[in-house]
Amino acid sequence: MGSIPYGGGWLTPDGIDAPLALLLLFPLLGAVLAAVAGSLFDRRFAGRLAPAVAVAAMLATLVTALVIFFGDVLPVGARDRIFRQALWPLFVVGGIRVSFGLALDPLSAVMVLLVTGLGTLIHVYAAVYMEGEGGRPRFFAFLNLFVFSMLLLVLADGFVPLFFGWEGVGACSYFLIGFWYRRATAADAATKAFIVNRVGDGAFLVGIAMLLWGMGGVQMVTGSAPGQVSSVLTVNGPMIVTPEGLQPSPEKRRLPVGPTLDFHELRDQLRLEMLPRGGGMVDATHDVHFRPTSFLLVRKTIWHLPLLFVVCGLLLLGAAGKSAQIPLFAWLPDAMAGPTPVSALIHAATLVTAGVYLLARLSFLFALSPGALTAVAVVGTLTAFVGATAALVQNDLKRVLAYSTVSQLGYMFVALGASAAGAGLFHVITHGFFKACLFLAAGLVVHAVTATTPQAAERPDLAQDLRQMGGLARVLPATRWAYFFACAALAGLPFASGFFSKDLILTELAISDRLSIAPGALLVVLAVTSFLTALYAFRSYYLIFFGGPPRHAGEAHAGGHGGGGRGHAVMTAVVLALALGAIVAGPALGWPANWTPGHAKSLFQQFLAPMFDGDWPRRVAVDAPPALEWGMQAGGVVLAVLGWAVARALYRDAAATAPARRRLAERWSVVVRLFATGWQADRVYHLVLIAPARALARAATWLDRAIVDRAVNALAAGGLRLGRVAGLFDRRAVDGVVGGVSEGVMAAGRRGARLQNGRINSYVLGIVAGVAALVVLAYFLGS
Amino acid sequence: MTALLAAPALASIGLGHFLVLSAVMFALGLITAATRRSAVAILMGVELILNAAALNFVAFSHYSHGTITGQVFAVFVVVLAAAEATVALAIVLAVFRGFRSVDVTDVGTLKG
Predict the structure, then answer these.
(1) Is there a contact between A761 and B104 if contact means CB atoms under 8 Å apart?
(2) Fewest CB atoms within 10 Å of the CB: A207, A365, A683, A783?
(3) Residue ranges of the domains in chain A?
(4) Is B41 within a domain?
């Protein structure tokens, strides 16, 4: 547990024991209780038991997370912030021992707080929102299970436990998106989300396997017993500054080396190996034959490509599946078929951040492959642009927000590609707040529209149609302001949280020197995307709350939907709290370096620094020059305000500008259709995945029918014929022999019995005959 | 006596004649034993067979010079035949008492 500042803390400390499993216990218990007790006693408590259990479980998780964070994590020195809890061993293969363990370091701490904080607010909102819906025990059980899976994912201390959580969130998202499983759209959307995720999961799994192969596979290193740590490397250190210069301290450190599936072990080994030689930092005096893992990993090639690039590419595809990046993004807009709190949970706190988290967790691995970093940045940039353009022309409010999420996740990937995982994580936080706020506000809007639109009962999609809205500012005044501030944060208006995180990402991209391509082109695309972001955000804002038919404050609650006044107040309070977070989180956590006197990094960056500082090879430009930061911030503000102004001009008075907009849309109808369909992603899937799969199925059917079936039938016919021949043989030959023998014996018996007739005369004759025969025999033989 | 023995008519009788007679007696005895149903008749057939054998002994003994083993054997055969007749006739008597018949075809109680 000692503090070991290895040359800037790039080796993981031993870790401190902490009851991390408690974080997982509460949501799991909540899920089970909500499902079992909620179903059993649903009627007695008027259906309030399951929501109450789920919310209580989330509150307990949140309190646990806060206690651990403030009581354990923060008091410890920045470099020692790693907490571990080993739960149980899973399996041993060759020299690899895989155990089910949890670890909490700054990166997972951030994610845990995000998931529990937003998760709790969303649970509270959902408890009210889902009143009057059937199947609530199921809903809240899966909601809790979703949070459990996500916490497992971020707390996992290795690839294997992470994969459990990874699959868990995938399964829970399937169940929750398809919550209204009687609606065909919901069931289809759930299936689509699941299948698209499977494509990514498959790539992820192959990536892990190839990573393991690259480390030398599971074969034992000479001299180690199965299941033992393959080898142990003793490292000199830590380096200490003395008057004579840098000197290694007498303290020794033992590190396991060899193939591993543990994040921290892998990171430490790579860092040791990648260290510049001759620094005197590493003195490899080892117990047994030591083959450096990373030596294999970094230099290995496969199919004439660097193995690391292939591995990182596959992991990127896996992350893209979860985080809705090109090419696997089209499931997210369809996932809007689930209830609104589910959308908020998926978009803000859980599922889609899993991919970002994975790449941040493995940033030390991606740092070794400039090609992979470039791929991440390019994918992020394109996704940001495609998502923003698609969000611009959607008529369904929730689809606007969904494409917005796709676009914002693209920004996070850009940050990861620019070797600035801290900036990406910061955007995860700010985006979590404003996107949760937008979704929950959209839920209130949908309720209000449902209450005032008679047809909405039959057509749930109508209640989400932006063209049906308008004028809701009078009905939902508080929601309107919350929505406005969340839009401001999304668009990146000054002092709203998105402003800080997005400009940080663009700045980091501008100074990134690890990419294979110049970041200029990406910057231009992202700048355009910033403008589009402001445009679509405020488009939805003006279309919802301004113009439209006159509405009255009382109307929204007339239907009694949403639990009347008190429930409405609770939901509005949640939305306002999230709006506050959307405004405050940015400046509180991410105050820009160029705004501080000492050019100090923001709180958030400092907190996460131990996670990413030691990534090697390092970026040359670690800090951005203040002038660049000022320029980026100014440019960001100009673009955001420009987008806002255009949106205001076009959509504030929607009725007046309708003819002009219609003419515009007609002239650019091809582009509009392209954007509206998410750049024809579904058609691409159809061409690339579904059509080949169907063709394969047809070919397989043909093969099955024409060849396999025929062969089987021929075999069967042959068997039948053989059977007939065998039967014949059996009956004629075998039975004949057996029967013949027995009949012969019987006949002989009958004949023989006739001899014993009891008449002496015949006996005498027999004797005479016998003697005569003997005599004749003797006569012939005797000579 | 000597003249009688030296008579040319007698001189032609040799071992062959005895053997033929013996064979005929044996055959007659055998046929009697095999065909007659009366137990007494069968016994008579057996006596014929025994005497045919005894005649063979005597004949061979006469024509093979210097030994009397055959003639001793013939005496034994006669004694044996007497003993056999005694026992067999006793059995026949017992059978007759039990079955009121000496027909061997009637005596089938032990036949399975």
Answers:
(1) yes
(2) A783
(3) 9-157, 183-212+309-676, 231-290, 708-777
(4) yes
CA distance A591 to A582: 14
Count of CB pairs separated by less than 8 Å, A with B: 24
Q: What is the pLDDT of residues A565-623, one digit of tens each?
A: 677 888 899 999 999 988 888 888 888 877 877 777 888 888 888 788 767 667 777 77
d(CA A432, CA A346): 10
Q: Which positions in chain A touch B37 (Cβ < 8 Å)?
A: 761
Identify whether the C-beta of residue A260 lies closer than 8 Å to the C-beta of residue A269.
Answer: yes
- The CA-to-CA distance between both ends of chain A, in Å, stands at 115
Residue B34 and residue A758: Cβ atoms within 8 Å? no
- Residue A416 and residue A514 in contact, taking contact as beta carbons nearer than 8 Å: no
Residue A760 with chain B: CB contacts under 8 Å: 42, 104
Tokens representing residue A212 in the block: 């393991």
For residue B21, the domain's CATH number is 1.10.287.3510
Q: Which residues of A touch B30 (CB under 8 A)?
A: 764, 768
CB A261 within 8 A of CB A96: yes
Sign of CA dihedral A209, A212, A217, A218: negative
Alpha-helical (H) ranges within A41-135 are 49-67, 106-129
pLDDT tens for A458-473 read 676 777 888 778 788 8
Nearest to A361 by CA among A270, A262, A504, A263: A263
> Distance between CA A308 and CA A100 in Å, rounded?
26
Sign of CA dihedral A731, A734, A735, A736: positive
SS (H, E, C) A402-437: HHHHHHHHHHHHHHHHCCCHHHHHHHHHHHHHHHHH
Least confident of A48-57, A90-99, A395-404: A90-99
- DSSP line for A479-540: HHHHHHHHHHHHHT-TTSHHHHHHHHHHHHHHH--SSSS-THHHHHHHHHHHHHHHHHHHHH
Distance (Å, rounded) from C-alpha A330 to C-alpha A625? 38
A759 touches chain B (CB under 8 A): yes
pLDDT in tens, A406-447: 999 999 999 999 988 889 999 999 999 999 999 999 988 888
Residue A275: band (very low, low, confident or very high) from pLDDT cuts 50, 70, 90:
low
A760–B30 CB contact, under 8 Å: no
Phi, psi (deg, nearest 5) at residue A302: -145, 135
Global model pTM greater than 0.80: no
Q: How confident is the model at residue A9 (pLDDT cuts 50, 70, 90)?
A: very low
- Give tens-digit pLDDT for B33-50: 888 888 899 899 999 999
State which residues form the domain around B73: 15-99
Nearest to A24 by CA among A77, A136, A81, A103: A103
The single-letter DSSP state of residue A102 is E
3 state SS of A475: coil
Backbone angles phi, psi at A99, to 5 degrees: -125, 160
User: CA-to-CA distance for A636 and A489, rounded, in angstroms?
Assistant: 12
A477: nearest Cα among A583, A537, A556: A556
Q: Please tell me the total count of domains within chain B.
A: 1
User: Edge-to-edge strand order for the sheet containing A83-93?
Assistant: A16-17, A83-93, A96-104
- Asked, for residue B74, whether it belongs to a domain, the answer is yes
Q: How far is Cα A334 from Cα A193, in angstroms, rounded to an integer?
A: 8
Say if residue A285's pLDDT is above 50.
no
| Domain assignment of residue B38, yes or no | yes
Peptide bond between residue A550 and the one before it cis (omega within 30 degrees of 0): no
B19 found inside a domain: yes
ipTM score? 0.73
Q: b/e for B90-105, b at 16 or more Cβ within 10 A?
A: eebeebeeeeeebebe
